[in-house]
Amino acid sequence: MFKIIKDNRLKNTVNTLSFFKRQQRRAQSNSSQDIVSSADVVIIGGGIAGCNTLYQLTKRGVNAVLLERSKLTSGTTWHTAGLVWSLRPCDLEVKLLQDSRTVYSELEKESGDYAGWINNGGLFISRSKVRTQEYMRLHTLGKALGQGSQLLDSHEAQKIFPILDPSVFQMALYAPQDGTIDPAMACAALVKMSKKNGGKVYEDCPVLDIHYSHNMLGNKEVTGVHTDKGFIRTKCVVNCGGAWGPRIARYAGVPALPLVPFKHAYVVCDALPEMRGCPNLRDHDVNLYLKVQGETVSIGGYEGNPHILDQVPDNLQFHLYELDWDVFGVHMTSAATLCPKLGQVGVKSTVCGPESFTPDHKPLLGEDTNVFGLYHNCGYNSAGMMFSAGCGIQMAEWIVTGRPRYNMFTFDVRRFTTAQLSRAHWVRESSHEAYAKNYSIVFPHDESLAGRDASHDALHQELVDDGAVMQARAGWERPAFFIPGEKIRVQQYDWGGNNDYPRNLDQRYEEVLKGDYTFDFSKHHALIGNEALACRNGAALFDMSYYGKFYLTGPDARRTAELAFTADLSKSDDRVVYSLMLNNKGGVEADVTVSILDGGSGQLHEPIFKGRGYYIVASGFSATHVLAHLRKIVQMNQLRANITDVTKQLCILSVQGPNSQRILQRYTDAGLANDAFPVSTHRSIRISKAADAADGKQYTCRALRIGWAGELGWELHVPSSHAIQVTLPPVVCALGPLPGASDGAEKEITFQPALVRADGIKNSGWRALTSLSAEKGYHLWNADLRTDDNPIEANLGFTCRNDGEYIGNEQVTRARKEGVTKKYAYFTLNEKIPLFGQEAIFRNGEVVGYLRRGEYAYYLDKPIGIGYVNNEGDVVTKDYLKDGDYEIEVMGKKYKATVHLKSPFDPTNQRILGNYGELGMDENTHEPHAGQNERAGGSE
């Protein structure tokens, strides 16, 4: 086989180029005409992303112009494989793919021309038990979202793909709605319809610069685009530059866009009659895909040692690189093993071109963090053909209405922090890992190895020394859980031993991560449960320092707060208020805590300012998004308000549990009783370095009586300079295995509350904290609370004041009056099985939704899931929720579930008051009880 391939190598580029040019069909452009002087939107880049964006904008009546420096599709679109799948491991991507297929299938009817869509189905091959489990999860999620698929044994798979060797794999997942799209034909049809709708396309029109100005608040705003054909006035530019996206961003003063170009390849084989009518195929376990077109099959995949391009030349149009067989050869071997006949056919041509990849393997969409009016739509990780049509719909909604219809945060460019974007090595390393792991199993608790150990809080080393196993969120290292007696440090990225990098000698962190490479209970299930139960029965210390922390001050701070926050902030200046931030569609952009302040002493935790100010705390995961949202409110309303980011300067130590007050009282002279320090209040207190040291060194901090665990507790917001001195000493408790722990889980002594000393506190991590929050029933933004949920749907109407002009208030008022067609609910199972989210919800035998979030509730000793129940467009009432018989489908098996309108854990909120007597636990309660959700739901 390889001899035949090598003999064909020298003529591959020429043959491939002519192969694609024979298929190319372009709509007539406006290149010969004078360029327009103004436009509502200017799109830069004539690939599939740009053409889809133009099409969707012009459908909505927008005066849009597309600029292409060469010819349409000439960058990377023309050589793409064009595979379109339907099943992915998250709901957003499944919905976007469904929209893409709808666009492509309907485009032919609209244009009257063949648009290149071929619906030949898709087949996923599994060679292992754990891969089969992943496919069963995909099958279940697809069922919940109306995307049917079939689980096949190897011989059944061979019937629809005859050249398969059934002895090589275990089973397959078949999705009949999958297919391929021809890039040239699709772009031609999109442009034809765009021009019919009034859009304009200019080929051979390179962009030379993007003009912007600074408004009165100092923010950048797009004002126009300079091309070699003239200047176009516009307030909106969409960067659809693909691999050239970072260069376009720099025109607008954006120093870095997290996107790296790679050489990506596939080969086109000689005809094989048996391939006619076969579906496309993915063999994820060996990083292989097969594209079928007539009697021809193309072979491609993703390697661990790809060629990384420092940059892509401007003049790279309809150009291919020479294929490196030392890199690509592994895919030919894999293909011949799976399909022996492929080892007997020759290679017609090779295709090796640039493709762009991002650090988290998600596209870059949405408005830039620092330049108003600059939108990005690029970085598709070699999946632009299948995602860009669905994303084009969302981009058009984003530009026209202000926000997309779907929750696009995982694609939003604002998911990255400024610090992350400033680290070129992080972008490069993480993008390589994204490429190399493109077909890896997506485990719910997997962690990246690339670009790590960059941002720490002041407690980092102390926590590592105490056994913390770190996880990375928004570039910050934070403790996931603790292994007592171990010091497991995150190592520098070793590129998996590829690209001439030696493997790290210390592999302990990677070995720990392997304990979570499962869809069963984690190997660390018992350790995490011990931390959770230490909080429930004693006291736990959580490092929450990675959270975003902002001060809102200035003459118009109050007005800004009234617009931005749903809650009533007219309370006294010692209150901590849980509030939502909504968009103009009523969707939840964030949930935060807002501490109402008067000017302080000038210390970091109590700054000096005039009038009323606000201390805002948001999840670190969404901090950049929250900051951008606040700044846009200020900018759009021309308000005189200052937003100061103090995230790095302040640490958050959260002390939670029945013993928290007794422990904390030993380190402070501040009164901590309910009457002296009520729930949901804050104040400055002094903390001693040592317990009971009346004359010892003391440090001031801001204490907030709130928590995310549902227990008595405080958060200490401490200047980073003395966070170490304020840290309370931990004690290692004798803890034990928990119900549901898988074989191989840590074996320890059964936990008893008495084993926690009165003056001891246990360091605990985020895995325990997210479990505790789900058990209590608190929300988690970007999981069970998102931009496509409104407060009434999410049972958070209590956070929305009845008067005022906050953004989204009209939609909330309407939802209160008319009811909602989906409703937030909790589900508990009696079986000891793990839930991760994305499992299907059945009511009376019919699919009514899927879990957004799943955890093991260690105190209740059962799995708990959170999701929204739908009623086929009708209003969801309490009776509708309560009267149904519910089941949760987990990897193809249905389990009886109990529905709750509020979590059964402490439904009357006695524990946060310190009342640990009669708790009134009612595992079968349906009705919400009085009480307040005292903490922002800290998103991941």
TrEMBL record:
InterPro entries: FAD-dep_OxRdtase (IPR006076), FAD/NAD-bd_sf (IPR036188), FAO_M (IPR032503), GcvT/YgfZ/DmdA (IPR028896), GcvT/YgfZ_C (IPR029043), GcvT_C (IPR013977), GCVT_N (IPR006222), TrmE/GcvT-like (IPR027266). Residues 401-453 form the FAD dependent oxidoreductase central domain. Residues 459-726 form the GCVT N-terminal domain. Residues 40-398 form the FAD dependent oxidoreductase domain. Residues 918-940 are annotated as: Disordered. Signal peptide: none annotated. It holds the Pfam family FAO_M. Transmembrane segments: none annotated. Belongs to the GcvT family. This is Sarcosine dehydrogenase, mitochondrial. The lineage of its organism: Eukaryota, Metazoa, Ecdysozoa, Arthropoda, Hexapoda. The gene is Sardh.
